[in-house]
Amino acid sequence: MIQQVNIRSVRGHSSARVQVSILPLAAAVLASAPAEVKAGPPAAPSAVSGAGEAGSEDAVLAKWWNDRKITGDWLGARPVVEDHGLTLGGTWRGIFYGLLASETGARGVFTQELVFNGKLDLAKLSGFEGLQGLSAFGEARWREPGYEANPNNFVKGASFFNPSRFAGGVGWRLGTFGLAYTTPELFGVEDLLTLHGGWLRPQREFLENQWGNLFANNAMAPSEGLGANIPFGASFSTWGGTLELNPNDWSYAKAGLFMSYPEATSSNNNGLMFEGYAPDPAENGLFLMGESGVTPEIGSARLPGRYVFGAYYYEEDNATFGRSKYGFYWQGEQMLLREASASGTRLTDQGLHFFSLFVFAPDGWNNRYPFYFHSGLVYEGLIPGRDRDQLMAAVALGQHSLKTQQAAIDNGKPVPEVTTFFEVGYRIKVSGWSYLQPFFQYESRPDGTEAVANAAILGFLVGVDF
Predict the structure, then answer these.
(1) Which stretches of 379-424 are DSSP H helices?
(2) Which of 13, 61, 71, 281 could link 107 by a cystine bridge, Cβ 3.0 to 4.6 Å?
(3) By 3-state DSSP, what share of the chain in percent is helix, strand and coil, each rounded to 5?
(4) Rounded CA gap, 176 and 279, in Å?
C-alpha cells in the first residue's frame, strides 16, 4: 500500500591501467553475496556431533552480516568502550569510472577514500553529570592521489563538475576536531542550543544534503553547489564556531563564523593550515554563514520535508575581482510517497523522495557560477524484498559567469556558457555494513563550451562501514 499527499493542499582514451587494491577487491566479493543472512530457528537435537555448534555459528554469522559495522562489536569490547563515552568508526569508499566517451577517449579510472572518525562523550567518560551534552570529536581521511585517479583529467571539464567526489584534497588530510555542546534542557526545551567550535568543516555544519550525498559526482555531493565559488567542500577545514537554535521540533536557525584563507583546499597543506595562509597571514579573512529552515511532517502519512534558506559572505584577496564574495541558497527536500508496512499499522522509511538546491551568487563578485541548480528523486525500497535499496536520478546545471566569459574572449578561447551533469544510479544494500552502487553519468559541455566533447561514464561505487 502506498500513501501519498496532494502537495497543493500543503501549507505553509584507449584502455589504461586500473589500480587495484585489496579493499575494493574484497568489497566486490562481498557484493556477490546475498543481501542478508538470517538466523534460522534453533537447531533440533541431533546425534551428529557439532550440530548445535553449527547452529550457533550461523547465528553469529547472521548477526555480523546484519551489523552496521564490518568490525562488529570487537569481540564484545566495542560496547564497553562506548559505555565509557568513546565511539570510533570509519568508512571506505571506492569508485570505478568507466569512461565510455570523453575528450580523450575511453578508459578506466579508479579512486578511493578512507575515513576515520571518533567522538568522546565527556559526561560518560568522567561520570560527572554536569558535563552532560559536552563531547569532543575528530576526523581524518586518506584519498587516492595521482593523475590517473582523477577522471576529470581525461574528461577535461571544469573542476566543479568533476565526475568524482574524491578528486580534491588527496593524500592524508586532517578533517576536523573540536568540541560540541547541546543543552540537555533550557527554558523547558530539550536540545534548544547546540554549539560547535574548533577546527571545523563548514560543509558539515551547513546545507545538510542527505539525498545529494548519495551521488558519485562532485557538484551534488561534497561541494553542494557552493564549492564552485568559495572553498566549501570536504577538503576545506578552518577555525570557527557555530550556534544552532532549535526552539521546537519543526524549525531551526543556525549561524557560523570561520576563518577564510587562500589555497585552503590545496592537497599540499594536508588540512593543517592552522595559521591560515602562512606566506602572508594578512590575507586571512572572515567567512560568515547562516541558514534557517523548517522540517514539517505532512499529512496522515507524516511525510517529512526540509525547506532551507541560507546566505554566506566570504572574504578573500583577489586583485582582479575584489576582496569578497557572497551568495544565497534555497534548499528543498520532501518525501512525496510513503509505503505502509505489510500490516498497515506503522509507517516505514520506504518511498519516494524529492530534493533540490538553487544557488544565486552575484556575477560581479568574482563568482564563477552565478546560477547553480540541481534536483533529483530517490526511491527507497522500490523492489519488493529490497527494502533498503535506493534508486536515484538527478540533474545539475551551472551557468558560467560574465567575467569568466569575458576572460575567455580576451584570451581568444571558447566562451563557456552552461554545463549540465546528469547521474542515475541504484544502491544495492549488500549487508548491514556494505553496499554496491552501479551508476551512469552524462556531462554536456564539461567546460561550458562545445570545444570539449561530452562525457558518458558507466561505473560503480562500493562502500564499507567499519
Answers:
(1) 402-410
(2) 13
(3) 15, 45, 40
(4) 23
Torsion, CA 242, CA 263, CA 317, CA 325, rounded to 10: -50
Half-sphere exposure of 439 (CA within 13 A, CB side): 27
**Cell digits of residue 114:** 578512507
Quote the CA–CA distance of 172 and 141 in Å, as a whole number.
Answer: 6
The pLDDT profile of the chain, 466 residues, written as one tens digit per residue, is 444 433 333 333 333 333 434 344 344 434 444 444 443 434 444 444 455 666 788 888 999 999 999 999 998 999 999 999 999 999 999 999 999 999 999 999 999 999 999 999 999 999 999 999 999 999 999 999 999 999 999 999 999 999 999 999 999 999 999 999 999 888 889 999 999 999 999 999 999 989 999 999 999 988 788 988 999 999 999 999 999 999 999 999 999 999 999 999 999 999 999 999 999 888 899 999 999 999 999 998 999 999 999 999 999 764 444 568 999 999 999 999 999 887 777 888 999 999 999 999 988 677 889 999 999 999 999 999 999 999 999 999 999 998 889 888 999 999 999 999 999 999 999 999 999 999 999 999 999 999 999 999 999 999 999 9
User: Could you write out the DSSP letters of every residue in 284-345?
Assistant: -EEEEEEEEEE--EETTTTEEEEEEEEEEEEEEEETTTEEEEEEEEEEEEEEEEEEEPTTSS
Which grid cell is 199? 577546527
Cell of 48: 551428529
Cell matching residue 356: 533540490
Sequence-distant (≥ 6) Cβ neighbours of residue 176 within 8 angstroms: 137, 138, 139, 198, 199, 200, 201, 204, 237
Nearest to 146 by CA among 6, 16, 240, 301: 16
- Does the predicted TM-score (pTM) go above 0.90? no
Q: How far apart are CA 388 and CA 349, in angstroms?
A: 9
Residue 29: CB atoms within 10 A of its CB come to: 9
Cell of 283: 590575507
Q: For residue 266, how far is the Cα from the chain centroid?
A: 20
